[in-house]
Amino acid sequence: MGSCEQCIVRQFSSLKALNKEELIKVANCKTSYRVKKGENLFEEGQHVNGVICIKSGICKIAKLTDNGKSHIVKLITKGELLGQRSLINDESLNLTATALEDMEVCFVPKAEIMSFFNTNPNFSMEVLRTVCEDLKEADNDLVNMAQKSVRERLAITLLYLADKFGTDEDQALHVQLSREELSGLVGTAVESCIRLLSEFKKDGLIDLVGKRIILKNERDLRRMT
Amino acid sequence: MGSCEQCIVRQFSSLKALNKEELIKVANCKTSYRVKKGENLFEEGQHVNGVICIKSGICKIAKLTDNGKSHIVKLITKGELLGQRSLINDESLNLTATALEDMEVCFVPKAEIMSFFNTNPNFSMEVLRTVCEDLKEADNDLVNMAQKSVRERLAITLLYLADKFGTDEDQALHVQLSREELSGLVGTAVESCIRLLSEFKKDGLIDLVGKRIILKNERDLRRMT
DNA sequence: ATTAAAATATGACAATTATCATAAAAATGC
DNA sequence: GCATTTTTATGATAATTGTCATATTTTAAT
Predict the structure, then answer these.
(1) Of B165, B175, B163, B161, which is closest to residue B212 (Cα–Cα)?
(2) Span B163-172, pLDDT tens digits
(3) What angle do CA B111, B113, B57 make, to 5 degrees?
(4) I need a labelling partner for B104 at 20 to 30 A (CA). Which of A95, A100, A191, B160 fits?
(5) Helix or strand (DSSP H, E) at A51
(6) Do B145 and A140 touch (CB under 8 A)?
(7) Distance CA B190, CA B192 (A)
(8) Which nt is closest to the CA of A192, judged by C1'?
(9) What are the pLDDT digits (tens) for A139-168?
(10) B124 contacts A128 by C-beta, under 8 angstroms
């Protein structure tokens, strides 16, 4: 069982506010496991009894809609925490988390996390900061969703993916999303998404090589948003 | 200068976690003032140096878009706090708050609020809960915006307004929003909004008497969402 | 009270986007 | 390796929504 001290999650999440003793407590109660691509880490409606630390891999946080589609609210990657919000509100989950790649994660029970809130004000403050940051982003996303065209939103999404997950040497997006997932992120029909990708390609903005999406002209993409 | 103890904001916001001593500190440093309909309480880009307690009145929290329109992210009413998020993140405001009615508010300086985070874990926890609740709502709004039609969103918005601000005996919405504001909340063009209101009227869902919007058939409105 | 300005309403039309059909390409199973 | 299923792609068309023009009504100003 690792010590958590060098863990990437500790570096990037609100866990950075924990001191050595607290980290040892986490290390002693955590459960490490792997999640295969396509499997759910959390499901809508479930009650959470802890948080999940993402050590490697990527997952999507999505909400199912009446018509069977799923809208992706955000993507989560290594270094981040999952399930904080529901833990704090003590509510069932309103979103489902599904692995987009094989993942390595740790589960930390609720009781442990909650105890830190009482004893470590820095930790509370870090969590608060994280949640506020999420809120700010959510507000931005909402306004974009309301005001921007699908075309603009696709451009924004591609740049977001490049920004968050990086690109290969040839500017190909690192994340491999299916067209359906991409359209779920943009908030549009699959066909519209595919059609617009084709248009982007024709306009020299991107290249499509197999499943890979290559940002050919990032400047013009950015100008479009 | 009032004691804050019986204040409505204290009852409904995270300030409820403050004890008597802390309340006295707030009472001694707060500034009460009035804001006229149409005036801004906060402006996008500004740096906040405190929070605003809403004692009476309603305001909108909105973001301006490139094309000059403004999208209303949410409405805030008596008992709520304004500016928490930016205070915590120590960032400039990403949204503008404008009074929709004459308002009575109190300003509490940043230093005071921040000190409570260090000394009162309950207060931190209450703020955290509030922000998490906001975040959950924001996620829901995002998915609605992405997946629902303008027609459905208008219905959802009307029900939200009835729910949050109440109705008169004759089921007329208590809040008086202009069509422009209503469309900014729904996320659509003013003309589309007006047109749909007319349709709703023709379908017997609502009645339009002057500026008043009367929910005539709430059941069918709700069924539509 | 009268005029001017703003808000609301409606029509005509264009642009965007979704839906359905179908084909081509890629991935999967045996 | 071949058949089958899934994913990606494209066309045709319909539905939704936005834009512009123009009344009509309401509000505000003098």
Answers:
(1) B175
(2) 999 998 889 9
(3) 120
(4) B160
(5) strand A50-56
(6) no
(7) 5
(8) C17
(9) 999 999 999 999 999 999 999 999 999 998
(10) yes
